Amino acid sequence: MFFEPKNGHGLPHNPFNAIVTPRPIGWISTRGTDGIDNLAPYSFFNATAYVPPQVMFSSTGAKPDRPGTKDSVTNIRDTGVFCVNIVEYAMRDAMNASSATIPADHSEFDHAGLARVPCETIPCARVDGVPAALECTLVDIIPLRGAANFMVLGEVTGIYMRDDCLKDGLFDVTSFQPLTRLGYRDYSVITDVFSLQRPDD
């Protein structure tokens, strides 16, 4: 099968997200200028550079009470900071609950029953108990093609790692089993890893 996206795919559901998998989930926490802590998962998320460390996530769609975008992008645009919380398998239900569309003046932390702790380098909260969190300052918000599509770029200013996830000086993802996003309504979890030696090492 071959299709051009502009002409449609003719399938029951769009296969694009099922092809580009697995994707890490950036559980983005922000704080509005009104002091409300926001939390939302984004599967268009990844690291982009080592030095300085940088990450990106993309927001698609808009909310009725946030014309043209969503709470996360609005808050980051206003405050210049955000935190990426890493989602473990044990927090899958809370992550899913935080994806609900709720009014901007309500906190997804409260909606999902999650405790929060202050970040160290930015005026923002992170999810208490996550395996890792990346505190970020805004580099740029880039409009993408399509309605309400934005890519947010950030520089990592602080990195939190849960102590039990460090094994012999390495961050061991099998100790907490990262949740990953697939296509449709599907997710997966990382339980096994293997290494490959690069040819020029």
Based on secondary structure, the structural category is: mainly beta
Could you say which overall geometry the principal axes of the C-alpha atoms support? globular
How many beta-strand segments? Answer: 14
> Which architecture per CATH?
Roll
What is the percent of helical residues? 10-25%
User: Can you tell me the CATH superfamily?
Assistant: Electron Transport, Fmn-binding Protein, Chain A
N-to-C series of helices and strands: HEEEEEHEHHEEEEEEEE
Low-pLDDT windows of residues? none
> What is the CATH topology?
Pnp Oxidase, Chain A
Round the mean pLDDT to the nearest integer and report it: 97
Radius of gyration: 17 Å
Percent in strands: 35-45%
Query: What can be said about the biggest beta sheet?
Result: 7 strands, antiparallel
Number of helices: 4
Number of domains: 1
- Quaternary status of these chains? single chain
Q: Going across the major beta sheet, what is the strand order?
A: 3-2-6-9-10-5-4
Distance between the termini: 39 Å
CATH class membership? Mainly Beta
